[in-house]
Design brief:
Blueprint: H1 11-15, E1 34-35, E2 48-55, E3 67-69, E4 72-77, E5 81-86, E6 92-97, E7 115-117, E8 120-124, E9 129-134, E10 140-145, E11 160-162, E12 165-169, E13 180-185, E14 191-196, E15 226-228, E16 233-237, E17 258-262, E18 269-274, E19 290-296, E20 299-307, E21 312-318, E22 323-330, E23 337-340, E24 347-349, E25 360-363, E26 377-378, E27 385-390, E28 393-398, E29 421-422, E30 430-436, E31 441-448, E32 457-460, E33 464-467, E34 474-479, E35 485-490, E36 500-504, E37 507-514, H2 518-529, E38 543-549
Parallel strand pairs: 1-32
Antiparallel strand pairs: 2-38, 3-4, 4-5, 5-6, 7-8, 8-9, 9-10, 11-12, 12-13, 13-14, 15-16, 16-17, 17-18, 19-20, 20-21, 21-22, 23-24, 25-28, 26-27, 27-30, 28-29, 30-31, 32-33, 33-34, 34-35, 36-37, 37-38
The chain binds pyrroloquinoline quinone (PQQ) and calcium ion (CA).
Calcium ion binds next to loops.
Length: about 550
């Protein structure tokens, strides 16, 4: 039934969220993925126990954080569903099921969550609409078509809400779209602005493309941005260039594999930083950088921290007019970069490991990178950044010129040609890493001998790090200071969701969706072909799990 006493969401509440709520993708606009709740600690986490579960009835990858506003939980699942649940009891209030078109091909069948504003919530769908639901009843308030799913345009991200604007970015880098970030009026769904991530004729940066390449150059913007409330700047990550081999789109290819600084009022690009040029590896740099105040080399830096898919841990400085390169270092082994130019921050490519047309080229890490979209976290207590990384994976493919057919995959290689190779003799793959972003030192690392690590990480003030992401279905808690594994719980499926923490009536809860699929499954399929003795089958089917300390 309908929700009574729903707490409307305001800009003031999003900017200063109550400790017990999780209303934004990473809880706070700075993207840190940190909960200030500290009832559950490194000492007592061994007593963490399930209090309720909820089967979503949906297969495929459940990637969304359970969003919590004053005791009400909103869970987005694959296939366009949203479930409103009493966060204390696990009882359902309502469920929204989108009717997806029969001919919809979902390359990435998932949703990363719902955004909140006043008494509504907002879902971006894989058939490329933004839908506003009444938070109390789940009834559709408005439904706006963004682009045409028949042209390979879709959305998987959780919308970012700033000042009543619903900000989204499109997917489709593997279909040769031209990426964009767009804002809709939270009240009525009217489009307020749209900024293409690839500059058109006459716009700055257009000359980093040749001919008509820019029209289908990729640069999809398929993850939620972060927001600097002091300078009113949105930081948004941009994806790979299309098609994959850089030879097919000569130039630096702005703003692919970059971060954009946008004015949320009009979508104007204030400034940008491109992590790597002429992307050729499908290395989307879409996870928005975390906004962290750093003390580095004796100075205060308002930083942007981004452990990249390109295997480099990036530390940048944000100023109102410019983003400066501060430091970068590889956080997993890579043969693609020979170094980083200290002045410009541009990585120096080794041409032997850059895909070309007509010849197979191998490169490390694989096309899933040192870290794909699953989020890193920052703990304000330890001052460390926690990275879900993958080591000992390489990839390769033979570039091939194929004509673009709207709505069909346009990779610049045969899909069966891609895949992943485990380095011979590798003793592990997934790595949960803890880095000090101020010094560039790795403080600890936990290795997963038989699994990739493909799930987001969350930090809490109880000095805990929560993560799933492995093919053994476990959900885990680590000591944030030492990396010691303190607790684990086997769940129904593999976890590629995002852990959150919330509080009701004095009890701290941890919530996660377990539901394997999308690229965690694709890496699993590729791992199995490497004959390294890992469990082939990870069962699918989504379940929301909620934990608290045993009383
Ligand atoms: O270029 C794109 O537009 C695009 C979109 C998405 C997506 O929307 O999920 C993914 C990717 N690329 C991608 O390269 C990738 O590795 C990936 C993994 C996943 C996932 O949900 O596990 N999505 C995506
Ligand atoms: Ca991509």
């Amino acid at each position: 039934g309908p929700i009574e006493n729903y707490a409307p969401v305001t800009q003031q509440r999003l900017e200063n969220p109550e400790p017990g709520n999780w209303m934004l993708y990473r809880r706070t606009y700075d993207g840190q993925g940190y909960s200030p709740l500290d009832q559950i600690t490194a000492d007592n986490v061994k007593n963490l126990t399930p209090v309720w579960t909820f089967a979503t009835g949906v297969v495929e990858g459940h990637e969304a954080p359970p969003i919590v506003n004053n005791g009400v939980m909103f869970v987005a699942t694959p296939m366009g569903q949203v479930i409103a649940i009493n966060a204390k009891t696990g009882d359902e209030y309502w469920r929204y099921k989108r009717q997806l078109p029969d001919d919809l091909f979902q390359l990435h069948p998932t949703s990363r969550g719902v955004g909140l504003w006043e008494d509504k919530l907002y879902l971006a769908t894989t058939d490329d609409h933004v839908v506003a639901l009444d938070a109390k009843t789940g009834k559709v308030v408005w439904d706006t078509k963004v682009q045409d799913y028949k042209k390979g345009q879709y959305m998987t991200l959780m919308p970012l809400i700033v000042d009543g604007k619903v900000i989204v970015g499109g997917s489709g880098g593997e279909f040769g779209v031209r990426g964009y970030v767009a804002a809709y009026d939270a009240k009525d769904g009217k489009e307020l602005w749209r900024t293409y991530t690839i500059p058109g004729e006459g716009e700055p940066g257009h000359d980093t493309w040749q001919g008509d390449d820019w029209k289908n150059g990729g640069g999809s913007a398929w993850m939620t941005g972060n927001y600097d409330k002091d300078t009113k700047t949105v930081y948004w990550g941009v994806g790979n260039a299309a098609p994959w081999p850089g030879e097919m789109h000569p130039g630096d290819n702005l703003y692919t594999s970059s971060v954009l600084a946008l004015d949320p009022n009009n979508g104007k690009i204030k400034t940008y930083h491109q992590y790597h040029q002429n992307d050729s590896w499908d290395w989307d740099e879409v996870e928005a950088p975390m906004l962290i105040d750093l003390q580095r080399d004796g100075r205060n830096i308002k930083s942007l921290v981004h452990p990249g898919r390109d295997a480099i841990f990036w530390v940048l400085e944000r100023t109102p007019t410019k983003i400066n390169y501060v430091a970068g270092w590889p956080f997993v082994a890579t043969d693609v970069w020979k170094g980083i130019d200290a002045e410009s921050g541009k990585p120096i490519v080794d041409p032997d490991h850059k895909p070309v047309v007509g010849k197979r080229v191998e490169f490390c890490p694989s096309l899933w990178g040192g870290k794909d979209w699953p989020s890193a976290a920052y703990s304000q207590k330890t001052g460390l950044v926690y990275v879900p990384a993958n080591e000992n994976f390489c990839g390769g493919f033979t570039g091939e010129k194929v004509p673009l057919k709207p709505g069909e995959l346009w990779l610049g290689t045969k899909p069966e040609d891609i895949g992943l190779k485990a380095k011979p003799g590798a003793d592990h793959f997934g790595e949960l890493q803890a880095w000090d972003p101020a010094t560039g030192k790795k403080v600890w690392q936990h290795n997963f001998p038989k699994s990739q690590l493909f799930g987001s990480v969350t930090a809490t003030a109880g000095d805990l790090i929560f993560a799933g992401g492995t093919n053994d279905r476990n959900f885990r808690a680590f000591n944030a200071k030492t990396g010691e594994l303190l607790w684990e719980q086997k769940t129904n499926s593999g976890i590629m969701g995002m852990p959150v923490s919330y509080e009701i009536d004095g009890t701290q809860y941890i919530a996660i969706q377990s539901g394997w699929g999308v690229d965690a499954q694709r890496i699993q399929d590729a791992l199995v072909t490497n004959n390294i003795g890992i469990e082939a089958n990870v069962p699918q089917g989504g379940v929301v799990w909620v934990f608290a300390l045993k009383k």
